[in-house]
Amino acid sequence: MHEMGIANSVLDVIRKETLRFPNGHIHKVGVRIGELAGVDPDAMSFCFEALVRGTELEPLALEIEYCPRRYQCRACGHSYAASRDDFACPECGKLDSQFLGGDELELAYMEVEDGARAAGA
Amino acid sequence: MERVPLERKVLNENDLIAARLRARFAEHDILCLNLISSPGSGKTSLLERTLESFGRGERVAVLTGDIQTENDAKRLARFGFPVKQITTGGTCHLDARMIEKALLDWRLEDIDLLLIENVGNLVCPSSYDLGEAAKIVVLSVAEGEDKPLKYPSIFFKSELLVLNKTDLLPHVPFDIAAAEENARRVHRDMNIIRTSCVTREGIAEWVAWLDRKRESTRVSAAAS
Asked: Which of A96, A107, A112 sits opposite B2 (nearest CB)?
C-alpha cells in the first residue's frame, strides 16, 4: 500500500501551487493512473480524502482518469485498449502490437476557483 | 473557475533523484539492477548464489531493503563484498532518496555492479525508479502462475523474469509454461531464466546474463 505516499506527492504539488494562486482556492485536481502504474484508484481516493480532511486544502476533490493498456497492431494498424488477460488485436487476432500507453501516473490539471489568475501573471 | 494544466509526473521528486543517480552510475560505469518480487520468492538466495559465483576481485556491491531486521545483509555479507541493509521501518518499497542516502559513504569508483534487493512486494516497488538500468522480477514456482496477470505493472516494467525454486516443481501444481505465457502476455519480449538456488539449475545462465549486461554497460560507457 503505497497510495498514501502517492497521494501525499499529489498534495505536495497542490500545496506549492496554492502559493501561485493567493486569491483563489484549488478545489479539484485531476490525475491520470494507468492500469500498469501499480496504483489502485480506490485506495488512492481513500488516502487522498484522509489526507485532505481537516486541512486548509479543504474542499479539494480528486478526479481520477483510469487509463487502460493501449496498443497498436503492427499487422493491421488497429489501435485498441487491451483487456486484462488478452492483448491480441481484436480486429485481426494477431499478437504483434506496439505498446502505446497505460503506465502513466501523472498530474493532469487542477481547477481553481476565484482569483484564478496566477500571482505575477 | 479555471482549469490549469499541470502535466507532470506525480513522482516527479523521486524521478529527479533517480535521474541524478542514473547519471552518477553512468559516470562510474556502474550497472545497477533492481530486483523485485513478493516476499519469500528467493531474492536473497539468488543473491547468495550470485555472490558466491564471483571471484574476490569482482567489484560488486549490494543494497538490500526490508521493512525490519538486518537479516538479509548478514546473510549476504559473508561473501566479502560490500553489503548494506536499508531498513525502511514500515515503508513497503525502496525509493530513490533511500538509495542516494545509502550510497553516501561508498566510493562509487570501486563498484562495477550494484545489485538492489527491493522490499518483498510485487506492487509498490514497481512505481519507484531507483536509477537502475533494469528491473528484474523474481517469481517462485510456489506462487501462482497467474501472478503476471494479477500484477501486470512489475512484469511489464521488468527486463528479465527469474522463475525461481524450480526444484519444487515436482511437488507443486505450478504450470511453468502457463506462467511464462502469462508473463509474455503482459510483456511480449520478456527474457526468462529458470533457476533453483538449491540444485543451482540456471544459476550459470543467470550469471551469464549479468555478464552480458555488464559488458554492454562497459561498451556504451566507452562509446560515450
From this structure: A112
Q: How confident is the model at residue A116 (pLDDT cuts 50, 70, 90)?
A: low
pLDDT of residue B106: 96
Residue B35 identity (one-letter amino acid):
L
Interchain proximity A107–B185, CB inside 8 Å: no
CATH code of the domain containing A32: 3.30.2320.50
Domain count for chain A, please give it.
1
Distance, in Å, from the CA atom of B70 to the CA atom of B75, rounded to the nearest integer, reads: 9
Q: Sort out which chain B residues have CB atoms less than 8 A from A67's CB and list them.
A: none
Mean pLDDT of B142-165: 95
Any idea which residue has 497505460 for its cell? A102
pLDDT at A121: 46
Q: Say if B6 is an interface residue toward chain A (CB within 8 Å).
A: yes
> Does residue B123 belong to any structural domain of this protein?
yes
Residue A120 counted as domain residue: no
ipTM: 0.81
Phi-psi domain of B165 (left: phi exceeds 0; alpha: psi -120 through 50; beta: other): left
